[in-house]
Design goal:
This protein has 133 residues and is α/β, with parallel strands linked by helices. The protein contains four helices and seven strands; from the N terminus they run H-H-E-E-E-E-H-E-H-E-E. It has two domains: 32 residues, no CATH class; 85 residues, Nucleotidyltransferase, domain 5 (2-Layer Sandwich), CATH 3.30.420.270. Helix content is 36%, strand content 19%. It starts with 5 loop residues before the first helix and ends with a strand.
């Protein structure tokens, strides 16, 4: 009677997953390092102050750039569109929170005009975003 040796004649059914795990760990590390760098936004040089930071995930963000362009959540809008979109937002959301990010080199009058448009749209809570010292 002849005994068969499966190790020499049969097909290997076990898959070595060690190289796969190594590649996945390298990709995970690369993703973790590059993910924070992928955040895009409006380039605004915020004024530096000593204040406690306040963040909100529900509020809208209005950005004013150095060349007096307005952005609503990273989308460029005209002053009239800003007021119209914020009015629609105020009707939908009960909290009505808006955060204003204005470049430190923007004329004071333009910032006040933007704040007036935001208040005119029915926004009750307006926060000024600054950069901590």
């Amino acid at each position: 009677m002849e005994t068969k040796d499966f190790r020499s004649n049969g097909a290997l059914s076990d898959i070595n997953v060690t190289p796969l795990v190594d590649v996945m760990l390298v990709l995970l590390v690369i993703f973790m390092v590059t993910a924070p760098m992928m955040q895009e936004g409006i380039d605004v040089a915020l004024p530096q102050v000593q204040a406690k930071s306040v963040t909100s995930e529900r509020g809208m963000v209005v950005s004013v750039t150095k060349d007096q362009r307005l952005y609503l959540n990273d989308r460029r809008v005209t002053p009239e569109e800003l007021e119209e979109k914020l009015r629609a937002f105020a009707e939908l959301d009960q909290r009505k929170e808006v955060f204003l990010r204005a470049d430190k080199d923007v004329p004071y009058g333009f910032v006040v005009e933007t704040m007036a448009r935001i208040k005119k749209a029915g926004i009750n809570q307006l926060g000024m975003v600054t950069q901590p010292l």
